[in-house]
Amino acid sequence: FKKLSLKHKQHIEKHISKFPPYSDFNFTSLISWGDEDTSISELNNNLIIKFKDYITNEPFYTFIGTKKIDQTIRTLLDESTKNRLHPKLKLIPEAVLKADPKILDQFEIEEDRDNFDYIYLLEEAKEFKGKKHRDKRNFINRFKKLYKTTHKTIDLGNQKIQQQILNLFHLWQKHKKRKKTDVENELLAIKKVLSLSKDLNLLGVGLYNKDKMIAFSINEVLSDRYAMNLFEKADTTYQGIFPYLRHITALYLLELGSKFLSHEQDLGIEGLRISKMSYNPHFFLKKYTISHKSTKRK
Asked: What is the pTM of this model?
């Protein structure tokens, strides 16, 4: 294993380019949310990652690839036991399972709904047409009537912009009544992305009331017409601001040729799931956990 660093960007992207954009294996997501213990390796030409659970901070192994999958799983489960980790692989992409259906009978495999990635059609967010999008459309229309705002792409490497983003993050935290300990990991992740913005293919969108930033989104433009939303925050005293932010972000991404937007997972957080489902995802990128079959079962 080697500690994850910026120099691994090309290597990781070479591995994941053959697959849909599972958020956990996205380099930008890894480098921003990872810590000093996040590390990568290779086994049977598969990309192996050791990092920590987003909620519990418990370390675990995961991988993406299509070579000698059963052998790779056994090795990683043995390695987990050897290193006194819970003997379960997490965040295993559905594409891995499809590459070798035999493993369905060899291991205990369970859907990990909390970590499904939400994929949306950007064209739907352009106007939010139809009955299923009526609520979002109403929020956007109300926002336009109540407030006079402007929006633009923002330079994420600019120190003034960075400070506006951090100020808005703290304002969002205050309005949401979140404890510092509840948001420190996300704040650290945003700071890492901002510090590396010149090395990443990012699109920043800012929403302003006069000269004051009232919302932002940070997105990465990926291959195969995908984009990934990494962060978005807003001053929630403005009614309908998040649907409007999603709407204007979609306009910019569509101009760049993107078709799908990943909004990553909900981590089993009830409010986050309700919010993500309310935008009517087009489909999910499913992930699974894998462990040895229970010997207690007949």
From this structure: 0.94
